[in-house]
Amino acid sequence: MSEQAGTVATTNRPQSNNLLRRDVRFLGNILGDVLVHQGGHELLENVEKIREMSKALRAEFLPELYEEFKQVIDALNPETRHQVIRAFAIYFQLVNIAEQNHRIRRKRDYERSAGETVQPGSIESAIQVLKEKGISVDNVKEIIGDISLELVMTAHPTEATRRAVLDIHQRIAAEMTELDNPNLTYREREKLREKLLNEVLTLWQTDELRDRKPTVIDEVRNGMYYFDETLFEVLPNVYEELERCLDKYYPSEDWHVPTYLRFGSWIGGDRDGNPSVTAKITWETLTLQRGLALKKYEQLLKEVMEQLSFSTNIITVSDELLESIKKDRETIELRSVELWRNEKEPYKIKLGYMLEKLANTSEVTLKGTSKRYESADELIADLYVIDRSLRNHFADYVADTHIRKLVRQVELFGFHLAALDVRQHSKEHENAMTEVLANMNIVENYADLNEDEKIELLHSLLKDPRPLTSPHFAYSDSTQECLDVYRTIYRAQAEFGVNCISSYLISMTQGASDMLEVMVFAKEVGLFRKEANGTVRCTLQAVPLFETIDDLHAAPGIMEQLFALPIYRQSVEARGNLHEIMLGYSDSNKDGGVVTANWELRVALNAITSAAKKFDVKLKFFHGRGGALGRGGMPLNRSILAQPPHTVGGGIKITEQGEVLSSRYSMKGIAYRSLEQATWALVTASRLAKYPEQEAGATAQWDEIAKGISETALNKYQDLIFRDPDFMTFFKESTPLSEVGELNIGSRPAKRKGSDRFEDLRAIPWVFAWTQSRYLLPAWYAAGTALQEYVGGDVNRLDTLRVMYAKFPFFTTLIDTLQNALAKADLQIAKEYAGMIADKVIRDRIFTLIEVEYEMTSSLILQITGQAEILDNLPVIQESIRLRNPYVDPLSYMQVQLLKELREKRANGEADEPELLREVLLTINGIAAGLRNTG
């Protein structure tokens, strides 16, 4: 694109943004050169004309210009249209790279220019506040000891970008960073431009669409990419910074921060609705993860080996080190590593044996011998032998720099890389239990029992040590697979360590029996066992997933019922009196709308916490947030602070999925900043839980108001989504729902049961389709009516909402989330999508409902916040959205045109034109990149 095409910032932005404008302009010019090279000047001129008209329409909407704009798009021949779509889509990819690079640059600029000033939202700012508030070192140790966050990569990613494309993005980002190097010569800058021209050309000629759906193992490898590229390096750096800050403000203590921040995964473990995830796949996943962990340790040990050239001609190493080398010589045969010949360099000799043991760790034939590491703890023990010896001859700087970081990496990633959660639908367990119990003549049809009868039976089975299954019985395929999963978990814990899988999540948990079924199956394979002396050993926890509004209401009662069962309570005690509970943001949002979902989740958090407190059980809440606004998506630090402080004491888990993975974790600088902000939020939340800053009375009054607003919003939302008979027609015909299913994003089907019912539609395509069509309806609908009904023209009530926005974190987060959604939505373009609806009466009636609600919501939010425009409080995001929109708009108009053509051909029974479908999918990818959202 031409020079003026790249200006994605206004001229009155701070000086630092000049560099962002420079980068976008630079990449825009390179893309323009590629367009001319590949499609001639005519292609560039077409792109520029459409861009200029779109920009003009955003500046001032003129009906005659609008019609001319659509005519220009309609007049494009298919080949040119295809290239124009790709030009805009690739432009957004380049802008996203430039913006990510600029975020890293801004942080570095701040640190360079701020001097002693502490950056807001940094780890140091959180520790500085503790010191300023006079919090003692013992209380700080309690606060740090209470924080825990596990970020879980999910098994149904909405990441629309291919791995091959991500690799090109990485190379472009690295080369763009070089532009800031002041020592570059003119010729070096020219060479840099040539390299970038090659990369953008490669990007142009690389297919951004997958030719097939990824397999589960493809998805596993995609998730591991982030560990390999960034997390192995960045995560220990975050710990190092926290310890540095604690040393600075509380120097009397020798700090070694306990493990509080780590990553987990569902990929390869989540079988809910995905028949491709089998027990065999789960084992293969764990094997691949261990392979990467061992490979990283091998690389790191070799790097350390190069550094530790200390000679006993000069220093004296510890007797402990020499004794360990002697033992290694007696038991380990060096096959993959050459023996270090210089006897005066004992560290290199020791590391050689450690490398051999590491290479042997995957060898099953050596299991139980000292020739391999049986656990990550054994590797840590060897590292500490080296660490103590180094400090013995005052090489503590080397120990701190090389060994302590490696110890931290092994503590974080073990031999399993990331804890893998297993998830399955509750109905699958019930079906398997029914078959198993019928075969044993215990009950003819378990599924027909009522809930109390099920609980009584399962509780007695859990206490009974006798087995329920037999190798002599032939089970159905589904029951056999269910049993195989538990056997695989038992085998995996023995091979990869007990932490490789310790949580078994149950989708659609609707009763205590759903949890007890999992525990009975766990008992069957030895994951749960009651010893002869009465103690219980339990290495797998059943984790309920409460998803719908009704499930959230039932959750406290279900957990109380479970905790009251002595054998179940013993299983919780065996796991440190800590119980994990997952709350689903996606289905609750789809079920009740954004306002009600957020409110009911808050109520559930408080009620379940109170229920657990009666039994002295601490809770770890697992927040199933998606990447998109309609599925609970928000920045990591805000999602932590959005929780009531007293509910974070047992730890937090949060899903990280889709475009969130590449936007947060593909670049080290951004990954570090995101995890740093998360740590700041954790420390802040832990402090607020211990030292509340809000009066309970005010919060109780605000809770009552929020409850009333939620009830009104639920009625409004469900009037349209569930009770309007024409709604599904409107939704299916005015969004690219069916076409989204043809984009080869994930291995998981878009619908449960292959059904067309709304209830069986997954939340991801539900949100993705609304985002593509620019309504973003799930992220804001019904809020305006609910707020208006509460205010009712009463100025005092409006003032109350203003105070709540200023002082009530729940309400602040809700209003700001609504603002973000309203800013990204565009009903002028959504109207074009509505034009695809065949029935004009349905179209006009429902679109008018949506339009009125949008205007009302926008108006109320401006009154509450006192802002002149939506997102005035977040000008960086506001401007990013405002300046991206003119570039997304052409893709939206072209998508509507293509959808009409495609659907018309299908309605006439004509075979799909591959190129037409391909263009639709290209616009989907392009809009996702432009809005930085899929589902």
Number of helices: 35
β-strand percent reads 5-15%
Give the end-to-end Cα distance, rounded to a whole number of Å: 29 Å
Please report the total strand number as a whole number: 11
Largest sheet: number of strands, sense, barrel closure: 9 strands, parallel
Structural class: mainly alpha
Radius of gyration: 29 Å
The protein's oligomeric status is: single chain
Helix content: 55-70%
- Low-pLDDT stretches are 2-14
Mean pLDDT: 89
Strands of the largest sheet, in order across it?
A: 3-2-1-11-10-9-8-5-4
What's the shape?
globular
Structure characterization notes:
The protein is mostly helical. Helix content is 63%, strand content 6%. The protein has 35 helices and 11 strands. The strands form 2 sheets. It has a 9-stranded parallel beta sheet. A two-stranded antiparallel ribbon has the order 6-7. β6 and β7 form a beta hairpin. It starts with 16 loop residues before the first helix and ends with a helix.
Question: What's a concise summary of this model?
Answer:
The chain has 35 helices and 11 strands. By secondary structure, the chain is mainly alpha-helical.
Question: Which structural traits does this protein have?
Answer:
935 residues; two-stranded antiparallel sheet; 63% helix; 11 strands; mainly alpha; disordered N terminus; 9-stranded parallel sheet; globular
